[in-house]
Amino acid sequence: MTPATSPNKSDSVRLGLHSCHTGTCKSKKTRCDKKTPCSSCARAGKKCTYPPNGPRVRRTKKTMMAEMAGRIAVLERSLAEVAALKGSGAPAKDNCTANDPSNTANHSRLSDDLLLNEGSSSQYFNEVLVAKIIGEDKSIEAALKRSHTKQSTCSPSPFDAMGILSSPCFSQRPSIFHPSKATAMELWNRYLNKVEICIGLKLIHVPTGEVRVYSTINDPNSTSFEDLAFCYSIYFAATISLEESNSLLMLDKNAQLSYYKAGIEQAFAQGDFLNRPTLTVLRALAIYLSAVRIHNRGKSIWILNGLAIRIAQSLGLHREGTQLKPPPFESELRRRVRWHLITRDSRAGEDYGLDDPNIYVSGSEVNLPRNIDDADICPDMEELPPEKNGWTDMTFSLINIDLAKTLEKVKNAMSSRNTLCEDERRSIISEAQSQVQKRLEKCNQVTPFSVLRYTAPISSCKNSTSSQVSNGLRSTMEDSKACP
C-alpha cells in the first residue's frame, strides 16, 4: 500500500467522525461507510472528499435557500426551453420527418428507454419521467440494483404471487385451509361491502356467486378446486382490508394471509389451472392478483397479469360473445372479466415504469359490459335486457373502462408520432370527462359508497389530465431532439 493510498492516523479519526462531504451520502442523506472512496460515491462515479478536522459546519438556512433557489432556476430554464420549442418546433418536425424516412415511431422513443443491468438480470424502463430520473441520478440506479439483490434473501411474504405456479401436494386437499363457517360468511360480506368496489372492475355476479360461496362454506371437502380457488381469493382480498385487531383474524394478519394464499396455490395446482382453465378459475386469479397488487407492485404482478390474459385468450374471451354464441348471461360475465384484465394490465405496467400502448384496450373487439344491475340478469335468460340510463352496479366499472380507453388514445397518439396537437389532446381528455360526468349524473351522494363512487372517477380524470400533459411534454422534447 503506497503512502498516497494509506490513510494516516488523523485520516482514520476524521473518517470515523464524518460522512463524505461532496459525494452522494450528504446530498441523499444515506449512511456513509467512511471508506476512501465511500461505496455510494464509487457506485455513482462521483468524487468523494471528506470535511477537514474540527467541529462540523452546519448548513445555514441561507445556504439551504440558495441551493433550493438554484434547483428552481434550473427547472424554470428547462420549462422555458420547452415552451420555446413548442412555439417553433412544429415546422421543424415536418421537415425532419420528410427528409429522414428512418425517423420512425420506434426510433423516436429511444431517448426514453433505459436498461439497468445487474449481473445476468436486467430491468427495462420506458416511461419518460421514470427513465429520465433514474438515468440522471446514479444513486437511484444503485438503490434499484441493491433492492433487486436483497429480494432473494427476504423471508416469504403473503404478497409474493409467484406461488400460484407451485407444484401440487396431493397428500392434503386444499379444503384444509378453509376457515370456519362464521368466519367465511363474514369475509364474503366484507368482500362485497369493502373490497369489490375498490378492486377494479366488477367481476362477480353476486346472486350466482353467493350460491357458489355458500355451497363451498357448507361443505368445502366436496367442493371443486375451481370453487375453492374462487372462495380463497375472496377470503384473501377481504382479509387485506382487515385491521390487525379484527376478531376475524385467527392468526396475525400476515400469517392469516399466508394461510389463504396456500389454499389458493394448492387449489390452482391440484386443479391444473394452466391446462384446464375455466372462467371461475380466471375470475379467482383476477381477484387474487388485484388484491396482491395493493402491497406488491413489482414486476411479477405485471407478468402474471399477462399470464391471466393468455388464459383468457385460451377461453376465447378476446372474441365478442355474439360471435361465439355462448348463452347471453355467460357472454356478459366474459366481458366483465376480459375488460378487467386488459385495463389492469396498463396500470400494472405503469407501476413497473413501462408506458407502451396497450393493444388489448385500443384494439379490443369485445363489447363493453352493459350498464345493468346484477338482479337484471340470470343464467337461464334468453336475451340480455337493455341498458339502464341511471346508476347501476356496473356504472363505476364502466367509468374505469372509459378512462382506460382515453389514456390509451393519448398513448397511441404519442407513440405513433401523430401530429396530434395539444388542443386535440386536451379535447380527448375533455370528451372523457364529459362522459364521466354524464354517467355520474344519477349518482346519489348520500351513502359513503356513493360518495366514493362519485369522487374516485373525478380523481381519475385529474390523473388522466396529468398523464396527458406528461405525454405532451414528452412529444415536444422528442421533436426538439429529432429536429435540432
Overview of the structural elements:
This protein is mostly helical and 484 residues long. It folds into four domains: 10-44, no CATH class; 105-148, no CATH class; 175-380, no CATH class; 389-476. Helix content is 59%, strand content 2%. It is built from 19 helices and two strands. Strands 1-2 form a two-stranded antiparallel sheet. Helix 10 (225-240) runs parallel beside helix 12 (279-292). The chain is globular and about 80 Å long. The two termini are 51 Å apart. 33% of the residues are buried. Mean pLDDT is 75; it is low at 1-17, 89-111, 146-153 and 475-484. It is found in: Nucleus.
**Structural category:** mainly alpha
Specify the helix fraction band: 55-70%
Q: Spans of 5+ residues with little confidence (pLDDT < 50)?
A: 1-17, 89-111, 146-153, 475-484
Strand order of the largest sheet: 1-2
Brief summary of the model shown:
Helix content is 59%, strand content 2%.
Keywords:
484 residues; 4 domains; 19 helices; 2% strand
